[in-house]
Amino acid sequence: MANTQLCDATHVLAYIAINNNSQVKSAQIAESLQTAPSLVRRIMSRLSKAGLINTVQGATQPMLSKPANEISLLDIYLALDEHPELLKIDQHTSPDCPIGKQIPTVVHHYYDEIQDAAQAKMAVISLQDIVSDIKSSQEKSVADIK
Fold first, then answer.
1. CB–CB of 68/55 below 8 Å?
2. Backbone angles phi, psi at 36, to 5 degrees
């Protein structure tokens, strides 16, 4: 039921950011995502069209088009072909029921407020924040092993 496009696109960008001086193949990212390389290439195409990464067909070194601290989670969200609403209204309720008839209209503005608040929060979270958290978690995992 949940849409993972935003998470997957963020994963791709974080992978590129963390491996910024290395050759990165879509197959490597796909392995990390546990998906097909063709899906990773589609995601990278969207990110490239949105101006978030630079790629050269046939080359194995995609790069962020700007520093990670200048790429927001909202930028990534807007790069997706579909901008999935966080909450969907069930339009198939009974028109014969007084609640079913009204609920889609009544909750619509609440859902819009939630969507706006989520997008405002996404605008202040940078890819660098996410990359830093990943690195911090990795360091903690290594320290826990020792």
1. no
2. -85, 145
Domain boundaries, the chain: 5-145
Q: Half-sphere exposure of 125 toward its Cβ, with a 13 Å CA cutoff? A: 15
5-145, which class in CATH? mainly alpha
Q: Is 19 helix (H, G, I), strand (E, B) or coil?
A: coil
Of the CA atoms within 13 Å of residue 68, those in its CB half-sphere come to 19
Local structure of 74: helix, strand or coil: helix
Q: What is the pLDDT along the chain (146 residues), one digit of tens a residue?
A: 457 899 999 999 999 999 987 888 889 999 999 999 999 999 999 999 999 999 877 666 889 999 999 999 999 999 987 767 788 888 899 999 999 999 999 999 999 999 999 999 999 999 999 999 999 988 877 667 76
